[in-house]
Amino acid sequence: VEKMGIKQIDYGTVQYAQMVELRSQVLRKPIGLDFTEEELDKEKDEILIGAFDEDEMIGCCMLTKTEEGELKLRQMAVKDDLQGTGIGASIISFAENIARDRGFGKMVMNARDSAVGFYEKLGYKVVGDAFTEVNLPHHKMEKRLL
Predict the structure, then answer these.
(1) Percent of the chain beyond pLDDT 70?
(2) How many Å apart are CA 70 and CA 72, to the nearest integer?
(3) Sign of CA pseudo-dihedral 77, 20, 100, 70
(4) How confident is the model at residue 96 (pLDDT cuts 50, 70, 90)?
């Protein structure tokens, strides 16, 4: 991907619609699920991040504020045929910079077991025991940012 750009996007825009579609294809359809209106409705206040090749969204994630003053990384997705090319790492780096700029000292996430190795390479540590979410094994992971 020659000219990838990563930026914050706005809820309810064409880019947001692309984001929902990408997440659906990568994260939900393979496990037989889709998004509910209620789930998407809660995303109005999230920090939404998209990676683009020209006008096409190729990766995304969102950041949610938690009670503890941490940011939670959610809905991380990269187009299937582009996984393993560094796009995900670039998105995480962008997200961490936004978090630091806003004074958040920690990033947390519920990572699918299949992605734990990816996040470990980027400095995240597993905390606690495995649990099940969307019918898949997950681990809580975290990284200090400040």
Answers:
(1) 99
(2) 6
(3) negative
(4) very high
